[in-house]
Amino acid sequence: MDRIKIIGGAKLNGTIPISGAKNAALPLLITALLTPDTLTLKNVPNLADVNMLMRILRNHGLDLTIDGKRAGQHTQLGETVHLTARDIVDTTAPYEMVSRMRASFWVLGPLLARCGQARVSLPGGCAIGTRPVDLHLQGLKALGAEIDIEGGDVVASAPGGLTGARVVFPKISVGATINVLLAAALAKGETVMENAAQEPEIGDIANCLVKMGAKIEGIGSSTLHIQGRSQLEGAVHRVLPDRIETGTYAMAVAATGGEVVLEGARRSLLDAACDVLIEAGVEITETDNGLRVSRQDAELQPVTIETQPFPGFPTDLQAQFMGLMAKANGTSVIRETIFENRFMHVQELVRLGADIQLHGDTATVKGVGELHGAQVMATDLRASVSLVIAGLVADGETMINRVYHLDRGFERLEEKLSRCGANIERISD
Ligand code: EPZ
């Protein structure tokens, strides 16, 4: 199993190219199930999660080529992927697949809308929380789906097709918004979704659906009006830049000091995180081709935050921010309001010398003068990268075990950081 070794202490200086967003690429790949024509996606990141979803989608009958190659052969950054689901050959997504790749649950809406039936395993819990899917099912039922749970699977049918309806979510959910949005694009008539998630990745999917022929109003807001179509067409769409990767590298520079241009990054995708970093003493300026992040002599100041749905501070940057605050000049308080168990990184950061007290959903982080390298374990994607940030500023050697978590969501992480001066390498045993 691969490990990552970091010798801390080096400042980061240089340029880091920002990849296409994992959390937009995944649902965009699934969007291809909605049309028999070819959907071409550009700037698709080469990540373990993306590759796994491609394999899952091929089971449903999706034909997939990457820059003229077959799946599994690609190595380049930001690939162009051509997806064609001329015929859906299988409307079942079994447990072995959905349990390995939560986002594959989002095939439920598109399969149901296009084929009138689907059987998709319940995804189960995961390291960051219980993660139920009741809101997904509630939304699809409103569109006319009949849903039963059999042997741990969601068995859904809509023999006469789905019909547009008003869906009011009692709680904001990215995944439920995506599932219903994809289904509504092929439903008869208008669907109005209220209290929808406003994450930029949802706007990216909606924009792609518009190119495919759906009519959608309110993109970027919490109320979406979707006019479904009986058939959608092919389209060409570029995946938007990854705001979580952007924020992660911005926090790495904030931690080490130095100056890095995050090429292709867009501030509007992460205003809340940028404002917090500026409050902490980091300079962030927009450039022609991205964002310049710099911390020279200013000390890192503590900032208190709480995670919120977009446009608030993202839960997917909470762990990284805790890694950063571990060495701040004072005490910060970090409250996690989205997932009940997203603090797996705390004990690992403590192993590096951080002073963190956990009470329920709130972590109190007392900045310490020094962190010290140690053996630590990656527990989930964002938790792992918080250990990278802490390792970059710890003295001595930090060894991060189980880095397959990192590979799920960060493209060429060691290469991007070492080009900016970090002493980081992957060790393959
Ligand atoms: C997406 O997960 C992202 N995943 C997560 O990123 C991200 O942390 C999360 O949105 C919040 O921004 C992908 O895009 C692949 P939710 P999702 O439905 O859709 C509760 C990463 O690291 N809820 O918005 O599963 C749920 O338990 C990943 O890249 C219900 O109660 O998140 C949670 O408390 C991790 N019932 C809250 O809503 C439901 O039916 C938000 O979850 C659905 C969700």
* Largest beta-sheet characterization: 5 strands, mixed
Strand pairing plus helix content: what structural class? alpha+beta
CATH superfamily of the largest domain: Enolpyruvate transferase domain
Uncertain spans? none
Number of domains: 2
Cofactors and ligands: ligand EPZ
Number of strands: 25
What is the distance, rounded to the nearest whole angstrom, between the alpha carbons of the first and last residues? 6 Å
The outline comes out as elongated
Strand content: 25-35%
Rg: 21 Å
CATH architecture of the largest domain: Alpha-beta prism
CATH class of the largest domain: Alpha Beta
The overall pLDDT, averaged over residues, is 95
**Range of helix content:** 25-40%
How many separate helices?
Answer: 14
Task: Walk me through the structure.
The protein folds into 2 domains: 3-18 and 242-427, Alpha-beta prism (UDP-n-acetylglucosamine1-carboxyvinyl-transferase, Chain), CATH 3.65.10; 22-229, UDP-n-acetylglucosamine1-carboxyvinyl-transferase, Chain, CATH 3.65.10.10. The chain is 30% helix and 26% strand. The chain has helices at residues 22-31, 48-59, 95-98, 108-115, 134-142, 174-184, 200-211, 243-256, 271-279, 318-325, 345-351, 381-393, 404-407, 413-418, and strands spanning 3-7, 12-17, 38-44, 63-66, 69-70, 79-84, 92-93, 117-121, 146-150, 153-157, 166-168, 190-194, 215-217, 224-227, 235-238, 258-263, 283-287, 290-295, 305-306, 331-335, 355-359, 362-366, 375-377, 397-401, 423-427. The strands form 6 sheets. Strands 5-4-6-3-15 form a 5-stranded mixed β-sheet, with helices on one face. A 4-stranded mixed β-sheet has the order 23-24-1-25. Strands 2-16-18-17 form a 4-stranded mixed β-sheet. The longest helix has 14 residues, at 243-256. It is elongated. Bound molecules: ligand EPZ. The site of ligand EPZ has 23 residues, from α1, α5, α6 and α12.
